[in-house]
Write a structure and sequence with these properties.
The structure is a single chain. By secondary structure, the protein is an alpha+beta fold. It has helices at about 5-15, 20-40, 45-60, 70-90, 105-115, 125-140, 140-150, 155-165, 170-190, 195, 200-210, 215-230, 250-275, 285-295, 300-305, 315-320, 320-325, 335-345; strands spanning about 360, 365-370, 375-380, 385-395, 400-410, 410-420, 425. Strands 3-2-6-5-4-1-7 form a seven-stranded antiparallel β-sheet, with no helix packed on it. β2 (about 365-370) and β3 form a beta hairpin. The longest helix has 28 residues, at about 250-275. The N and C termini lie far apart (about 115 Å). The model is unreliable at about 235-245, about 285-365 and about 370-375 (pLDDT under 50).
């Protein structure tokens, strides 16, 4: 595992609440952050305070590291923020980066082009580290803040401008001025050495941070601060326990509310539709109540009893079975039809040529409709009132009735019907 992979794993573990992992991160970067703060503020005691505040803040907010950003990159920005506040307190004023009059960013771009030229890598001695640290202290606050963010923290000019609170042109000019001053100072100690070190200034400064000797109380103060923060934070999950209780996200909650609202609207629409399409209540109809109260087996018989008035003897003779005991007959209707037809055949000769106009109740009978001069057999609905106009006998000797029956309100038909199709229940 490379050093970069190890730091990435420690950062991930620290985000989960692993205090030991965060302790390892402090061991890796504690000295470098202290050196960064020391060169920013120029005072050892103030640098101790800034370093302590920086790691305490990082422990509380390590979960806020943006995706794709390393721990070192992120914590340098936090250290710069606290150092900038401390520097303003030491100077008795603001520590903002002063703007450059008539900035020329082209000088920075030329510096980058020169740094890309192949140069031998110099051998860095401890004396060189001390010389660079001393030269940093001689720079202006604005130049030092920008060059440390660019070379020490590896920020881009755009990121330097964002963190330092200045324009990108000002950040580029400040970085270029600091490079020129440091190269000139190193050339004064050893001619040509400054130009040799210019492309490697960032590595040189980070080497200074790794090799600095912070005061002994640094570790004690930072450790105490981290322990105080740990006491405030919730305990980390143990042995793979659930890190968070199971909760419903806001999106899921919104979806549930939407589904519930749709269900209520659908129920309301169904109720309205049911009321608007429900059949009318027929309980107020007295005839319906009477019909519903009669048993199925006795309805036809009782109806016959009620509808049969006293007829002439001639009708009684021709229809003895139906007019005498309709209710007492227990045989089904189908079994009585042959007898009815036979009685009608026997009494066919006795039927007069012209019958009085009577109303006959039929049950699904057929007739030949002649209202439109056609011989179409029509089906007469059950219990249709039919008026018998006359009777006729055809060439074959079959008896026919010429009838008129109502199809619907205001409409009626006339036609011939076989005598056997007409039941012999009649009304005056």
């Amino acid at each position: 595992m490379t050093e970069t992979e190890r730091i990435a794993k420690l950062t991930a573990d620290a985000k989960k609440g692993d205090s030991a992992a965060f302790g390892s991160l402090y061991a890796a970067y504690g000295k470098r952050i202290y050196y960064f703060c020391l060169t920013l503020v120029g005072d050892s005691d103030t640098a101790l305070d800034v370093t302590e505040d920086t790691f305490a803040y990082a422990r509380r907010n390590i979960r806020q590291i943006p995706g794709g950003q390393t721990f070192y990159h992120w914590i340098c920005g936090n250290a710069f923020y606290f150092a900038k506040i401390a520097l303003a307190s030491l100077r008795g004023g603001s520590a903002n980066i002063e703007p450059v009059e008539d900035p020329d960013p082209a000088c920075f771009d030329q510096m980058l082009a020169d740094n890309k030229l192949p140069t031998p890598e110099p051998t860095i001695r401890r004396a060189d580290l001390e010389a660079v640290t001393a030269l940093l202290g001689k720079l202006s606050d604005s130049d030092r803040l920008c060059v440390l963010l660019y070379d020490y923290a590896s920020y881009s000019p755009e990121e330097v401008a964002s963190v330092a609170g200045c324009t990108v042109e000002t950040a580029k000019c400040r970085i270029f001025n600091a490079h020129e001053a440091l190269a000139a100072g190193m050339d004064a100690a050893a001619p040509g050495f400054g130009e040799l070190l210019r492309p490697h200034l960032g590595r040189l400064l980070r080497t200074c941070g790794r090799n600095c000797n912070p005061p002994p109380e640094l570790d004690e103060r930072v450790t105490a601060a981290l322990q105080a923060v740990e006491a405030e934070l919730p305990s980390a999950p143990v042995d793979g326990a659930d890190e968070k209780p199971v909760t419903i996200s806001k999106k899921a909650t919104s979806l549930l509310y939407i589904l519930l609202a749709l269900a209520l609207v659908g129920a309301l629409i169904y109720v309205v539709y049911w009321f608007t399409t429900a059949p009318e209540d027929t309980s107020s109809d007295p005839s319906a109540g009477v019909e519903s109260s009669i048993p199925a087996g006795e309805s036809e018989a009782s109806e016959e009893e009620i509808s049969l008035p006293a007829e002439s003897s001639e009708e009684e003779v021709s229809l003895p079975e139906e007019s005498s005991e309709p209710a007492a007959s227990s045989e089904p209707e189908e079994s009585s039809e042959p007898e009815e037809s036979s009685e009608e055949e026997e009494s066919r000769d006795d039927t007069p040529a012209e019958l009085p106009r009577t109303t006959t109740r039929l049950r699904m009978r057929k007739a030949m409709d002649t209202s439109d001069n056609s011989n179409i057999i029509a089906t007469i609905p059950e219990n249709t009132h039919v008026e018998i106009l006359r009777s006729e006998t055809d060439e074959a000797g079959d008896l026919w009735y010429f009838v008129r029956y109502t199809v619907s309100e205001g409409m009626w038909h006339e036609g011939y019907c076989f005598a056997e199709y007409i039941e012999t229940e009649t009304e005056e």
